[in-house]
């Protein structure tokens, strides 16, 4: 890469272009290509080729132990349509993603609004709220697993105020809620910071004008603040949704998809099928489904931006 | 703001920060408890035991695993900064044929969870003889899907850069590459900072990839090692696991607290504002 | 921008080094065998490497490496390696994965790679044979027993009085008087239900029929056994409930059901303990063991060398050494005296009751082809049972509905 940089660098030290062939346009063209070359090559080798291979695998039945790799056409896709578990898996994924987006974004916004009051000492709180972001994901999840045990820290804390806590990771409803909440506390700091930056970009005069018109705080928030920070809301929601569909370590450490299959989200099911049940062909089919869902959601969110984003940037 | 409103805000902040702070507190204090006391409801251990902190290093080559995670994350961060700032600049400021379509092509990397491509990647790296080495954990993040977010952040930043600065540089006789290095990059420090943070944390947290690619204990990374603190028959050693988790978290937390202003403000200025 | 240049240089050097790594040296005749295991225990690893070093002394061209993979993902990790074309030469195989490995044709027959095959107890090879050929050597046959903390249970019922009712009664009493937990089925944790087999076998219950085709969860013996277990958990509080962590070996519980090889965890135990056989149940006395085999992979690069090393690794002398941690299948070594020599923590009478009688008469934990998926399906379907007031027969009928299609697949 050093050579790349110095090669395109060379003309810079020579006098301004007089060369008939190396016009500014042509040189820009070459520089542009050279600049994106590493990223493009990486995308082809580490993203597109593997994706095509996954598509190819999904048309095969692949038994690793018996060393057989047989073309079966659409059989895996038919199996997908008839898989009695897939409905529950998709429901769990939808529940997790929706729950995470709602909980995460509302908490992030609440924290950002509180911190935006510019009181003394808010920097300390900002650091505290952000700190889990830099704690290793697995370490964070392991700690929460301990605390969510029936005889763990959370229920001890609740018992101290006279409440009998549920068996968080062992009952259907609370297990999913627990995974969502653990994930929210881990990463809400990122969205909070982005919201805080957006809030600080809202001109003070607008608030003052609204106040003198006698608008309540809630009206000001809804009519002025929210529309002005809507691009950030869109961006954070896209990042959060796409991220939520890739949740793996948290499920693996906290619930292993249980109880029942209540927290078996698509990525975890894919991992089970491909790596635990050794159904690599079917696992590849599930991979294609996951890719299709992520793609569809992203396109959808991007389309919707005109509807609820106040100003396009 | 009225006195009452202020007190309310402080009260709300104090209550809200409990779930953010308590886990770290609990992790560190419990790591000093004997294994049998882990589930006792004490905020402070009855007697401090340094044994678990010592066991971390005897049960696994933990120092080595720490070094592995650290050097991989640093290398990935450095590499990604180079790759992403170049690509981001080109996509934002240089005009070349196929630019838009190529940007969309690169963006597909954002949409593909690593679980989707892990099997073919495994086969490719195995064909190259690189299984049970750190190369998959270094090369894929720098050039593959994980660096796309970094490229996106850099592009968003460079788009907001006023064009006049570059015009001036070009009039001074700087070429594209020179403008990039001498003008655009120095201005991009906040965005680069954000990219560095994102990338470092991503690499530091990788879990599925090390599980799949690595099988030798001395090559393990930290997240993988954390789940492996068990006795000879795979019974969990909770206090040792928590000691290791504390050691994983505390240095990064300290660096973060010292540099938090750059950290957070860098992130806020990424052009992710919309 | 010096930083950027340094970074660029690092990336460049990195890629070059990566290319250089690809070409490995191929000097004539030297063979490196790789055996995957799930034990990273220092003492175990030292024993293995000592045996490998002795072999290397006799066969200087062969080096053996041991690749310890985490046990909870062991089969997954090995299969992933095979899928990626990185097949180990020899692999430990868990009993749950045995039918998959044995029936798939992934292993080579070992009848000519085992010393004195007539010494091997027939009960230990049932799982590892197909069409009369031995496909893996059962190097570890570890019976289940009950470890008892005698500080917490001073008056342990013995002889004919050692029944499941008596065991649960004692566990309940100890839990109440000590404030600790009663009986812990180790490694069950409301997930790996196969570790309940040492309990439900007392009722003669089976997860599925011997031919593997018919679900056994809805049959009367299993309903009775599970009803008993459910009562012990939720009515008697003699077994810790779901989400309650308790470790017998740390002194948290009065008793635990586990494999006898766990005795080494009690080396520095701060309490007095003993090991007894599984309590008797409606079906009388019985025994259950877990197993591990070593197989030679057909896809490995050095099949003949691997077979020869296996012959050495499992010969009489080395089998006796391995017996310190892994109860051997060779009948001449299954005497209280020889076992006591390698298991100083256990008394000869413990060893006779639990190990020797266990191995000669016991049945192995449930296993099946495609067992990962079936075990997972059972686990999900059993989850509704782990709460107070659950309708046990209905849940068990649900288990059969969930797994019957998988059993016949």
Automatic annotation (TrEMBL), chain A:
PROSITE patterns: ABC_TM1 (PS50928)
Annotated TM spans: 30-59, 94-115, 127-147, 175-199, 275-300
InterPro entries (UniProt xref): ABC_transporter_permease, MetI-like, MetI-like_sf
Compartment(s): Cell membrane
Residue intervals of the ABC transmembrane type-1 domain: 90-301
Primary localization class, coarse: membrane
GO cellular component entries: plasma membrane
Topology of the protein relative to the lipid bilayer: Multi-pass membrane protein
Assigned keywords, A-Z: Cell membrane, Membrane, Transmembrane, Transmembrane helix, Transport
Highest taxon of the lineage: Bacteria
Membership in a protein family: Belongs to the binding-protein-dependent transport system permease family.
Name of the protein in its database record: Sugar ABC transporter permease
UniProtKB/TrEMBL annotation, chain B:
UniProt GO cellular component terms: plasma membrane
Predominant subcellular localization, coarse grouping: membrane
Localization per record: Cell membrane
Alphabetical UniProt keywords: Cell membrane, Membrane, Transmembrane, Transmembrane helix, Transport
Swiss-Prot/TrEMBL GO biological process terms: transmembrane transport
One Pfam family it belongs to: BPD_transp_1
Keyword Ion transport among UniProt keywords: no
Protein name: sn-glycerol-3-phosphate transport system permease protein UgpE
The species this protein was found in: Mangrovihabitans endophyticus
Gene that encodes it: ugpE
From TrEMBL, chain C:
Top-level lineage group: Bacteria
Signal peptide: 1-20
One of the Pfam families matching this protein, by short name: SBP_bac_1
Keywords: Signal
Protein name as annotated: Sugar ABC transporter substrate-binding protein
